[in-house]
Design goal:
alpha+beta, three-stranded antiparallel beta sheet, Aminopeptidase, single chain
Length: 80
């Protein structure tokens, strides 16, 4: 997974994603990947002669590790 590569190989501490407001599919996908909605960046993006609000999402290394640990525990206990 690209996220795992960022944390393990590139040693980043934080991964960010900005989503145009109203892009529900992207917001749901980021949520399923463990990203946290941090709020709105007002008129952050300029495109086609217009400013747009964006929603900021982030995933911290510590949150990713915690989620991975819980998933491995769950997988191991389901096999028994």
């Amino acid at each position: 997974m690209v996220i795992e590569f960022g944390f393990s190989q590139l040693a980043v501490n934080r991964i960010e994603a900005e989503v145009m407001q109203g892009n529900i599919a992207s917001e749901k996908l980021l949520g399923k990947c463990g990203f946290t909605n941090e709020g709105i960046l007002r008129e952050w993006m300029y495109w086609n002669n217009k400013h747009y609000d964006m929603t900021m999402f982030s995933l911290l290394r510590s949150d990713f590790k915690l989620a991975h640990t819980k998933a491995k525990y769950y997988d191991n206990n389901q096999a028994n």
